[in-house]
Amino acid sequence: MAQGRFLTGATFFFFFLCLNRPGQSLHNNASMNISDFKALVYTRSCSMQSLASSNITGKIVLCYAPAEAAITPPRLALPIVINRTMEAGAKGLIFAQYDANILDILTMCKGNMACVVVDFEIAHTILTYLDKTNILAAKGNTYVFMSGTSMACPHVSAVVALLKSAHPDWSPAMIKSAIITTASVIDHFGVLIQAEGVPRKLADPFDFGGGHIDPDKAVDPGLVYDMNARDYNKFLNCTDELLDNCKSYISNLNLPSIAMPDLKDNITVRRTVMNVGPVEATYRVTVEAPTGVIVTVEPSMISFTRGGSKSMMFTVMFTSRKRVQGGYTIGSLTWSDENTHSVRIPIAVQTVVQDFVRDTS
């Protein structure tokens, strides 16, 4: 994307790639350089008028489903939008639809044009992210502050380099887990982090992810949530339903976070932690349940012994106590030992009593 920004979405089609090359990304063109990236243009609607009034030639288009999509099934509206953007010379499409669960009815973009489908919430996140300017960095010897999203990446990249130096055998997922699970949700005044805006509000994982990163703690996280390329491969292929048991793969991807976008009654997910701290250790769980949700963790205590397994799996069951529909509520799950390790992951749950649009479409 323009200005070197990267966004990750669910592609319409995923190709099985060589997974036995450590250190390489899952991209099938290793010779790709920065000149291959395209600018992003936001055309608001995917209607013919909006696309025609914007210069989208050679660019990636982000647009919302046109008005006719409200009365036209997605399987009919989407090919029309794809053809419009291709005829206008676009090189990619990010299509925002109320219900993004339509991958099974999509047809391949002609000419290998990149296509991604997202729901309205994700599309709004992309827009606000592109406009965000409240990341600061010191400049020169006078420590003048500069503002911009690009200031956040060097900070985290430096911490990643430190962790990789201290633990050369750690995978990218382990490093990511160490940074997220040891981050703090308390600011330097000793109070919960607040999100900027008018009016101000308490920040949540959608604002700060894991929180303020703490490199000292990240070097010794105690436990990590690890994954490899094959785990991502299963997950990405499930977005196009190329594999069986996809529901299990998607909900149980071993991320250092848990998100439930459509909790109706109860859902159980699995996570696995790996011990990278003392060989003999016992961890107990503490849960801050999202409002209106009962969270049950089994087992509530895990122990590691010399000569035993370094990994332990646990289950988390979410049960809704709400009879009203609303937005996401936030919580956390923390494993703590008797020493200094506190391994925290964020939880976000949205209770859905009835999906009115899907039920009536």
From TrEMBL:
Record GO biological process: proteolysis
Residues in Subtilisin-like protease fibronectin type-III domain copies: 252-349
Keywords: Hydrolase, Protease, Serine protease, Signal
Limits of the Peptidase S8/S53 domain: 139-183
GO molecular function, one term: serine-type endopeptidase activity
Keyword Signal: yes
One protein family per Pfam: fn3_6
Keyword presence, Hydrolase: yes
Family: Belongs to the peptidase S8 family.
PANTHER family reported for this sequence: PROPROTEIN CONVERTASE SUBTILISIN/KEXIN
Protein name: Xylem serine proteinase 1
